[in-house]
Specification:
The chain has 9 helices and no strands. The protein is an all-alpha fold and 200 residues long. It starts with a helix and ends with a helix.
Amino acid sequence: MGRSNLALGVYALVCGASGAFALWLWGEIGAHPEPWFSLPPSLSHLYSGTLGATIGIAVVLLSPVLERSFRPFRNLAAELAPIVRSIPSSHTVPLAILSALGEEFLFRGVLAPSIGIIASSVLFGLVHQIPGPARWTWALSAGVLGLCLAALYAGSGSLLGPVVAHAIINAVNLRALRRFEPEASARTPLGGVLGSLSDR
């Protein structure tokens, strides 16, 4: 309980500080200062939110397939599962939302326009590490996802899509990790999210 409360507090602090910094730098929060495409604000948010939801759902569908098909991803899930199970279930959704907001405000909202989408994505990947052999699997996966979200933000000009994608991925995968069993995952044939839903 104490660690999850601390995590919620840290993410809330990061979200507030990053939002304030973006406001100070560019005069607004969640809007890219130099988007690739000039879109009206309403269309920018619609475009970003729709693509963000699509990316989030695609990652959620792909995650169990990767776990069942490739040992590095199965090892990663096995190492993350005990950490996730230590979080109270009532904190899963708040943590998913606050971590999405905090990380997106910082890495996409502030760092991507400041140091570039590649450098910010590398940093995003590097902070996603845990002790153990699967640390670089998570770092690489997070880096690739960060690059996609940074490109979405830069292209659309809206941070809505990256936040939506991040929140979907966090909320669904945190719940899935609570139920993850390495032996069952290794034996089960490819079934994607449908197989995991049948176990709930």
